[in-house]
Structure formats: C-alpha cells, structure tokens
Design brief:
Layout (H helix, E strand, L loop, with lengths): L2 H13 L12 H16 L6 E8 L2 E11 L6 H6 L3 H20 L3 E12 L8
Parallel strand pairs: 2-3
Antiparallel strand pairs: 1-2
Helix pairs in contact: 2-4
Length: about 130
C-alpha cells in the first residue's frame, strides 16, 4: 500500500460516517423544540414568546413561526429610521431560520411562514 492510499483512506473514513445497521428516528417533538429555539434565537426573544408548528411538506419540512418582534423604543427616532422595515426584518428571519434548521436537522426546509404576533419594546432603565 502506498502512502497516498493510506492518506486517502484515512481522510475518507474521517469524512464519511460508518454505516451501522439500524434506523434513526427524530421525533416531531424534537424537531419542534429545535425549531422553537432557532426561531427565538434568530428573532431575539425568549422561547416563551415563540410558537412553532412543523410539518412534512414537499419532501422536506414546512415551519410556521408566530412570534413577537423586538422593536426599538419609539422615542428613539434615529434608531427607528436606521432599522429595516418590519417586512424586511421578517424576510431575513425566514432565511435565517430556514438555514439554521437545515444545518441542525439535516433536513430540507421547504417553507418558513412567519407571523408577527406583537411587539416587544425594551424597558427603559431609570438612572437614579
């Protein structure tokens, strides 16, 4: 055996997982929990402020997300004018959630529907 053969065999065994007989099942509940966490993380809110439904669709997964969206304090006009519109933010969230879920679950994410259910405005801190 040449050195090239050994190196390529070693590289192949590291990049390709061994095939072991059996089955792998990931319950829908686990995928929903991962989806809720990814959606909350992408949105910047707690998991309690996110509802998620996951279903099989078109050979992949369809995800419905309903969440409150953080917005800047309305008194900060400069911050508000620098922010993208809500529609643009949600489009980015759809893309981020789809990419994150595809990476974590190994499944194709065919659709992400996002409903904004409210706004979360940061509380002001009083200086005393």
């Amino acid at each position: 055996m040449s050195t090239g053969t050994v190196a390529s065999s070693a590289a192949a065994s590291l990049s390709t997982p061994a095939r072991v007989p059996g089955s792998i099942r990931v319950r829908e509940r686990a995928i929903e929990k991962v989806s809720r966490e990814a959606s909350a993380d992408a949105t910047g809110v707690s998991r309690d402020d996110v509802d998620v439904e996951v279903s099989e669709w078109g050979g992949g997964l369809a995800v419905r997300v309903a969440a409150k969206l953080p917005i800047p304090d309305l008194d900060h006009t400069q911050v508000i004018s620098a922010e993208p519109t809500i529609v643009d933010r949600v489009r980015r969230l759809q893309e981020t959630v789809a990419n994150d879920l595809a990476r974590v679950t190994g499944r194709e994410i065919r659709r992400v529907s996002f409903s904004v259910t409210g706004a979360i405005i940061p509380t002001r801190k009083r200086v005393g």
